[in-house]
Every structure is written in C-alpha cells, then in structure tokens.
Amino acid sequence: QAVAAYSELESQLKVRRAKVDDAEGELAKLESDVQALVEQKRELRPDNDLIAWKRAFKEWPIINGFNPHLKIQYDWPADLEQTLGMTTVSRVDRCRSCHVNIDSFGAGNVGNYPQDEYELPFCTHPNGDVYLTATSPHPVNKFGCTICHEGDGSGTSFQSAEHTPPNPAVGDEWHEEFGWHSNHFWEYPMHPKQFIESSCLKCHHDVIELGVNEKFGATAPKVYEGYSVIRDYGCFGCHEINGYDGTTPIGPDMRLEPQTEEEARKIAADPNSIAGKMRKVGPSLRHIDNKTTPEFVAYWTADPQRFRPDTRMPKFFDLTNQHDALAGVMQPIELAAIARYLQTKSQDLDILTPSEGYEANAERGKDLFKKRGCLACHARSGEEFAGINADFGPDLSRIHEKVKPGAEGFNWLYTWIKEPTRYHTRTRMPDLYLNPYQEGDQTIDPAADIAAFLLQGEPTEFPALATPQASVGVRLDDNFTEEEARQIGLSDGQFGGVRVLTVLGTGPASRAEVKSGEFWVASPMEADDVITRLNGQAVTSPERFEEIVSAGKSGEVVEMTILRGGREFLRRVTLSTPLEDLTRLFLSKSLSAARVQKVFDDRHYPVNADMYEPGTNVADFVKGDEIELVPTSPDEKVSEEEWQRRMMVYVGRRTISRYGCYGCHDIPEFETARPIGTALQDWGRKDTSKLAYEHIHEFLHHHGDPDGSSTAERLERAVELAEAGVEVDEAQLTEAYFYKSVISHGRAGFLWQKLRQPRSYDYKKTETKGWDERLRMPKFPFDEQQIEAVATFVLGLVAEPPAPEYIYNPEGSQRDIIEGERLLAKYNCAGCHLLEFPKITFAASRDDLPSFQIPDRDRAAWERLLTLKPIQFADTGRTNDEDETLFEIMAYQTGEVDEDDPEYHEKFFTLWNPHNFGGEEGEDDVILPPSQPIGTLASKIESEEPARGGDLALWLAPRLINNERGVTNVNEAWQASPPPLYREGTKVQTPWLYEFLKNPEQLRYTTVMRMPKFNMDDEEALSLANYFAAKDREPYPYQSIPQRQRPYQIAKSSDYQENYPMADQDYLTASWHVLNRKDLCNKCHSVGGVEITETDPTKVKRGPNLSRVEKRLRPDYTDVWVYNPAWILPYTSMPVNFPSDKESVATELFGGSNPRQAEATIDALFNYTQLLEAHGQTVYTGPGDQTAPETPAEEEAPATTATSANDSVTNDRVSGGAEE
C-alpha cells in the first residue's frame, strides 16, 4: 500500500511539475515578447539623445532616400483610375504607410487590432469578411483605399491625405494637433465617416445588395435607406437619376417607366436606349372627379399633413418663400385652379355597383377589413386595430371625409376596392378577389361591406374654392401715423389717406399709368405712396379704400390721387383679379404686352384660320399650356363666364406644369411631360460654383429651425460644448457638420438645407424675383435621419464607374435574388407573408430540453428533410450571468402564461426548423425536429429578434382564435392566416409559381383570404418566381420530375412485380388506388375527380385540390410532406397518413406496407393527369372497386392507421433547469 501511495504521490508531483514547466515556458515567452516590445519602443523612441538625433537625421529630405527606416507602402490598384484636372491617371494609394495594421487579420478574418481597443491609425479595418482580406469581395491589393474613402492617396501627411472631420469640433481638434485645414484645391476630399457608404454606389448600381444581403448582412444600411426613401417618396419623378450613358451603366437607375405606348415602342426600337422601370408613386388623378370634390383637392394640396399627418406627399404651399402679401393673394387662386383643372379634365370611369337591393353591412365590413388583407398595407384608427400600423398604403381612418358623399362616393370606393386597375391602370394595389359569395341563403358582397365600414361617419365640408376678386393690387398700412408721414416726406398738413406698404408684383398697381401730355404712360405705384382719393372719393382708412374698390369690377379703370415725396400725383389703374394677373403673367412669357392685352380683349389665345383647316390640329400649332385658351373656332365668341372658366383651367394647368405634379401622379394631358428638376445621376460631382447658396448663411443665422429660432446659434453652441468635453448627441454634431458645409459652400450642406427647407434659398430674394421665378421644390416630411440617408445616397451619385471588372454585375441566381428583393419591396409581399421566422435566444440546461430520437426506420426521411430545412445549431457558445447556456431557436410563439408574479411568466414556442442543441462532453447532441414545442420562463429570454415580414399574419393569427369558424387554437389560426414564404423555393416548381403570380388560383380553403392578383408584368412575375428558387439554392427555372420519367416508372414497375407477383393491376394503377382510398386523402382533399362538398371547417379541414400537386410541388418536398407533414409545416392539421411503425388497413395494396403506399401516393400525384384520364373519377374502397362514386365522400373520422404528426410531441417547458 505504501508503494502504491508513493507512486500515486509521485505521479501527482509529475503532473504538477509539468504544469509548473508549462507556466515557466509561458512566462519566458511573455518576458521575451515584453523585451521585444521594449526594444521596439526604444528603437522608435530612443532614450539616448545621440541615437534619437541620428534617427531624426535619417528622416531629413534627401537623407531619407538612403535606407530609410520609415518606408512608404504602395498600393497600385490595376485599372482603377482617377481624374485629375483634364486628364486621367492611375490611382496610387500610400495610405498603409501610416495605417500600418489596417489589413492585419487573424483566423476567421477577425481584426488583430480592433477599433474599440486601438486608435487610428493603428487599428484594423472593420468587417474583414467584406473588406481588405484576400477572401473578401474587396481585397486591398485590388481595390486600394481611395476608391472608397476618397482623399489624396499619394499623401503621406495628415494634411496632404485630405482627411475630412465628421464635425467642426473634431476639425478644430485636428487643426490644433495636426495643423489641419480644408483644402479647396483638392477635388476629392476624404469622406467623413458618416458618408463613407456613398462610395458604394460607384460599383453597386442595383443598391439592393447593400441593404439586404444573406451572406454579409446590410453592408451599407444608410445608403440603402437613402435609396429606399427616394424610391418611396418618388423623388425621381422630378429628379431623374439616369443610371446609363447610352447603354453603359454609370450608377443606380431610378427613372420613370414610359408613360405611353408610343414612348415605350420608341425606346424599345432604339438600341442605344434603356427604359426606366419606376412607377409613379402617387395615385392616379385621371378620374378624380368620380372620387372627391374640388374643395377637398384644394384643401389637401394646400397642406397634405393637415389632413393625414403621416402622408408622404410633400408640402408645396405656404413655405418660407410664400409668406409675403403676393403669396397670400396668389396661392388660393393657384389651389382653386389646380382643383378646377383636375375636375375639368377628369375622364369618365365605368363605375361598378353592388347588385340591386344589396344592403351593405358595415359591421361585417369591419371584420372583412381585418381578415381580407387590407391591414397589410393600410392603417386604421381604433382600439380593435391596435398593434398593426402598416404604412405601405395610406391611412384609411378619414377616407369617409374625403370621398364624395352619398351613393357617388360609395360606388367609387366600391369600384376601387373591387377592381383597382379600373381606376388606376398602374396601381400597386392588388385585386383582392372580393367577389360576392354565398353564406347559407345569404349573399355577401365583401367589397360593399368594406366600403360601408370605411365610409362610416359624416363627410366633411371643406372650404369653398377661392373666388377671384377685383383689386388694385396693393397692401395698405393699418397703423399709418403722423410720424411715419413725416418720415416719408409729407408735411404736417398732408397727413391723411392710406399708406401703401407693398405693391404686388403682378397686380394692377404694378401696371399703373400716369398722364403725359395726351397719353397715359406706365408709371407703377411704389411702397410709401399715400392714397388720398379714389375716383374722387376721400380715402380715410384701409377699410374705406377696400369698400370703394369692392364696388368696382374687373376691367374698370379707377383714378387715384397719391402723395409721393410731398408732391401730389394722379394715377390710373385698371382693376383686375389675381386670376387675371396670373394669366397675364404666364402669357407674358411667350407674348408681348400688347399681344397679351389683345388676348384679354378677344378672350382667346391668338389663332388664325389655317389652324382649323381639315386635317390639322390646333395642338400642333399651340404646344404649351396655352392650348386651354385656344377657341373652338377662329370666330368663336367667348362669354365672360366661359372666359373666366378657361383662365382658371389655364392657370391650373400652368401651375401643375410649374410644380411638376405629374412626376408623381397620372394626370390627363401630361403624359409626355418631362421631369422638372435637376437630374441627379452625377450630382455628387456637381461643381459647387453652380449651386445657388444665395443668402442661406443669413437665413440660418436668423432663422432655420422649425420654431423660427437660429440654427446657427444652436449648432455653434453644440460645437462649443463638445470642444469643452461635454457629451453632445452625435446627430446634433452631424447637423453641425452640415451647417459648416453649407456656409462653406459645400455640396453636403447645400443638400442638407435643401431637404430641410427647400425654399430657404429664396431668403431675401423674393423681392427681386417674379412670382413664377421663385423656387418650387416642395418640403418633404423627412426627419434628420432620413435627410442624412438621402444626402449619403445623392452624394454617391458621381457617374464615374470604375473599370467594368470592378462593377458588381451579378449573374444567375445572384441577379435573381437582387431583383426578387426589389419586387418584394415594391409589392409589399412581407406585409402578409413571413419571409424569416423570429429568432428567440433563451437560457436553459440541456437536461431540461425535450427529448427526441430518430428511429432507424425514419432515418432516410430525416435526411431528406435536412436537404429542405438544414439543421440549425442552437448553441450560441455564450452563457448568461447564471452560467446557463444561451440557445437561439427559429420558432413561432404558440402561447403565453402571464402570471401576476413576473417570475412565473411563461412563453411557449414551436420550432420551425430542426435544431441541434449540442451535447455535453461524451454525450450525444440534443436534436429536436420541426414542430417540437418548447417553453421557457420569460425571464430566461435574452432577446427576441423579430420576424422579417408577416406583419399581418402575426397580428391576425391570435385574433382569429375562437373568432373564426373552425379556429380554436393557435395552429388552426396559422392555417387561416397568410402562409409563410420561408424556404418557398424548396417547395414549389418555378413555372407553376410564375403562372400563379400572374393569375392566382384558390389553393387553400382554411385561410380567411385569397392570394390577391398583383399588377405585375410578365418579367416581374418571372423574376419573383426565380427569386425563391435562387434564394434557397434550388434548381430553376425548370425542375426535373423523375416520377414522370420512363426509366423511373419501368424501375418501379419491375420492383412492384418482383415484390407482388400476384397483383392483378400495374404499379401506377395500384398507386392511383392508394391515392383515392375512401378513408384517406379524399376525406379532406378533392382528388380523383371527386370534389369535396363539406365546407364546415369544424367538421373537415379542407385541403388543397390534389390535382395541382404534379405542377405545383417539387418531388423532394412532397416526399417529406407525405411522410410527416408537421416536419414541413408545424401548424398543419394534416396527419401522418402512412406511419412507418404501423401497417395499413388496405392490406391488398402493396402488402399493407405504409412506406410503400406513401411512395406510391407520391408517384400517383406526379402522374395525376395521366391516371385521371385513364381511370376517370375514382374512390377506392377495396378490392375490385374502382368506379366513379355516386355520392360525395362520407364524413368520417380519419383512418385509425393515420397518426397525428404531433402525437409523439410533448409540451415540455424549459424553465431554467426545473420542470414543472
């Protein structure tokens, strides 16, 4: 025993000595590393003065050319050129001379010098999977640095590299530390960090992959957000972004699609042209008079956010350059004119109506509004709609106020809801198949009921349109005093009358005349003129002046006695209305003053008889908006009333032209109009000398913020605080950067202020501008984040694509994925459908996880499942504070127990994918299948990553439980909701999906809604069908169906004859009989030509018609689906009809083997049409029976051999190590 004990102690001593040796070795290594670092530090910063001097001496000019210790690191990206002045040179980057560790990565592309531990320039570039590493898409030796960051790549000092600070506080710090200053001689300063993403657009013209990328995630989220904002708000309607120079890509392409067939044909016939693809974002106004009143149009146009605060439509009126007296007169007339034009040009619409005598039920309409998909795009106020607030379409809470009252408005809404393309041919709103249906003896028209629900409430009476009133065209001083009279040169005895504050630039007073000899000559009135008499009557107050003028009529001449500089003058003024003033102003752009007056005298635009000759068209001679003033014949006598109407329509048309309303809306007679704004495809390189900054510095100094306070003071104060060490919000410092940029005449600052207050560049300029010369860009309801995102995108539009090999030009599946993502966003597919399931991270012990074993007999099916749903590794490799393992699962929530005590608050989930939870050392991994329930305490949940999409489904499902016939639990609720599209590519055949998208047929009978028909063209449907297959890496566009191939069928028949030599029918016939067993598929499905007639969901969960399987589903998916439906669709009600551990009751078919019968069923499904043609309607009940049934399938319980897909699943709950 003593020897044994000694040996044991000796063994332990050896182990401990080994540990000591290992520790000593590690210590020696660390000491060696420390010594090496000390020596390196001593070499870089010598302690000895002589050595330090020698080192500095070697850095002197010329001397440093002889074996320098500081060496330049060059990167010469091949074919990446740079324009300098008037020539193009190769790009040379020497950035890594200072950024010495920028490309230092370890295993897994992890930076060796992360930014949170090392300062610039000694840190490693972030995101090595995407940038700099050899395995990334942007290796440093190929791309260099300045192609993305800009700056002077040849610079080797902080200043010469042309860094740009992210805000003025940092700029001041750099100035003090490095002597930095802005160098306006260098055309490509480095991007500040907030704009670095803008460079991505040089190569990534599709943009989509920068925001939605399965491999790398969102690599440029800000520029993608900017793109999305421009797309959603329709900026391209005014500002074309042409991504092509001929047919050569130069950047993102955001242009309107051809608006006429003629334009489309012309572009298609031109080999050097490529058509735009963007639809107008606003609703069509082609049939506006069927929908609403002119009064609402004017009210809405004046301030869209006043009626609907969350609307995307910008504000055109009452902006910063429209607060003067002239705007107060002109804006109401312009608004009235726009409304009248749209009403006059509105085209007839073939209105639909409900069947005669139908009484719409608003309460039922509310229920249908919830269930038929409306909430996927639209919001609606009310407690019953809490929790879902879609903004893809407009909020419908006040729609009853805007549409016409009575039957006219109801019928328009009914038509729009039922058949959207009837009203707007290019709308994105789909046809929801809201066709009348029978419910018992009652006919229900869902479109009528929904319309009745939406129109509940009283219509609003909007203000009447402005009526033009004759005036002199002046604004008077309401508080004219003797002191003011003396200041303008009047003597004490001359005080009286009314003082002119403003002479309206387009009004009659601006055309006043004074008598000179026998003639009256132009002599406009001026500010500070004092009017003492009008038509011989004394003017004692502004009210008296208006009283006298209002008694006059347009065209009447009045005489005024005025005092100016102490002298008395007589002026003659012809009264006119603002409508006439606007007409006169617009006509003066193309006609002389005399011809304009003749237009008013004749009450029509100048024409001649040649314009009305047979075979001619007046529109060929009069091209502009003046066509509205052209008479119907050369000798037409136009009445005063008709002339007023025509002027109103003309001014409306001219105003629409001026503001570019047709950029977003389909408006009659503007089909060929071009965008009115500056093209943006190269704005990121726009010469700043061509940007009109005007008095913007003064505006921001005195005004600028929404409350009228000084933007300059606020941001300058923020910079002062930051420099003093006070923590300042990063967003405010970014604003300070923009402010500094705009007052320094930079592009970024100009863009920032243009998006904040687009008319502010007219500050103190309206006094010298004509009414129609003022800035026109409207104000969009952007927040600061959106403004920064849009600026980032626009600054990246440089139209300087690198060599073709650098441009991201995906092909095949990658191209289809990008195009598919664009279409998902365009048609809001994610509004209804889940694209990615939620991910829940929770803490648990493996011992408390449910158990699951895959029987050997199921192994083959399990392996096939894993090809459709790859196993997900749940172990995150992290633990919580209690040292419990954190697991991440992809699942949907199936329940919740919210106890009063938070400690017992529980949540229940169902796995969607197979999950591997790993295992303890020496133990097998814990693997759980799809459909496995898992419960956990809410306190154990670390995070819940929301689903991608499925907003409507996630909102609707819990609300259907016990509120929809046949829906009593969460799984049945999911069956009634829009289905997930997660891994849809593994499920459906691409040709079928294309046809389905073009013309959706009803597939499911348990859902509360049908798949709507979207207004997409053939190319879009094909791209979207390809997308799902490409995303799931499935073969497309065509799929091989081995079950229909002759070799497969011969092999199966041979095997069948070998195993069942006594069978009296061939293989496919036997398969057909399995498929048509009376107690199996035709319990729930229409199959074998026999339709299911039972529609009560409490008795039968009616499944899809099985005739579609052969063209719709992929074989591998169908194989696993038939084997275990819940593995594919965890919430399904379909049972396991062919359990592998039981024998079929139909022993005469395939010897009663369930696996063989399952395989035969699949073969029959994929040869369905052939077998139906051969055997006709069939319900198989036993040997010798293969005749067509006389009656529908009986209502029986599922066959006893069928096992529920969830029979073996227990509702275990993981609760932090304790099972209750």
Description:
The chain is of the alpha+beta class. It folds into eight domains: 2-65; 73-162, no CATH class; 188-256 and 685-809, no CATH class; 284-348 and 577-674, no CATH class; 362-454, Cytochrome c-like domain (Cytochrome Bc1 Complex, Chain D, domain 2); 474-575, Roll (Pdz3 Domain), CATH 2.30.42.10; 838-860 and 870-946, no CATH class; 1056-1211, Cytochrome Bc1 Complex, Chain D, domain 2. Strands 18, 20, 21, 22, 25, 26 and 28 form a seven-stranded mixed sheet that branches. A hairpin with a 2-residue loop joins strand 7 (437-439) and strand 8 (442-444). The longest helix is centred in the N-terminal third of the chain and has 43 residues, at 2-44. The protein is globular and about 135 Å long. Mean pLDDT is 92; it is low at 1190-1220.
Question: How would you sum up this structure in a few lines?
Answer:
By secondary structure, the chain is of the alpha+beta class.
Count of domain modules: 8
Low-confidence stretches: 1190-1220
Helical residue percent band:
25-40%
The count of strands amounts to 28
Count up the helices: 40
Alpha-carbon distance between the termini?
Answer: 50 Å
Mean pLDDT over all positions: 92
Shape category: globular
The value of Rg in angstroms is 39 Å
Major sheet description: 7 strands, mixed
Computed structural class: alpha+beta
Please indicate the percent range of residues in DSSP E strands (runs of 2 or more). Answer: 5-15%
